[in-house]
Specification:
Blueprint (H helix, E strand, L loop, with lengths): L2 H15 L5 H14 L2 H10 L4 E2 H8 L3 H13 L3 E6 L2 E6 L2 H19 L6
Antiparallel strand pairs: 1-3, 2-3
Length: 122
């Protein structure tokens, strides 16, 4: 059995376990997308897609006040989208997984198409 067949089978069994509409799966996906629907959080996630960063770097990247950035990071951490580690006195943030980086990149690609009136493509 090929890797793509294994992957298709895994996704098929996942869909069967979750029912026709994917109930919980759709709810969680909607929650993730709702978190991305904020400009500051989107900017933070975009910056973290380039690699881990501390709060000072993230403030510079998104241009929001420290208190705002800290609150948004707390929401992202509680949602399980970012992780933290201590480096001396600094807290360093990173994306939990590459799927989120790709999701943010694709959202920005859609924006590029709309802003630049680029033709649709796959």
């Amino acid at each position: 059995m090929s890797a793509s067949t294994d992957l298709a089978a895994a996704h098929g069994s996942q869909e069967q376990e979750q029912g026709q509409g994917g109930g919980e799966r759709l709810d969680v996906a909607a929650s993730v997308l709702a978190l991305l629907a904020d400009r500051t959080r989107l900017a933070l996630l975009h910056r973290l897609g380039a690699g881990e960063a501390d709060v000072t770097s993230l403030i510079e990247a998104c241009g929001a006040p420290r208190t705002s950035v800290s609150q948004h990071l707390a929401k992202l951490r509680l949602a399980g989208l970012v992780t933290t580690r201590r480096d001396g006195r600094r807290i360093v943030y990173s994306l939990r997984h590459g799927h989120l980086r790709r999701l943010v990149d694709e959202a920005l690609n859609v924006a590029d198409h709309q802003i630049g009136s680029l033709p649709p493509h796959d």
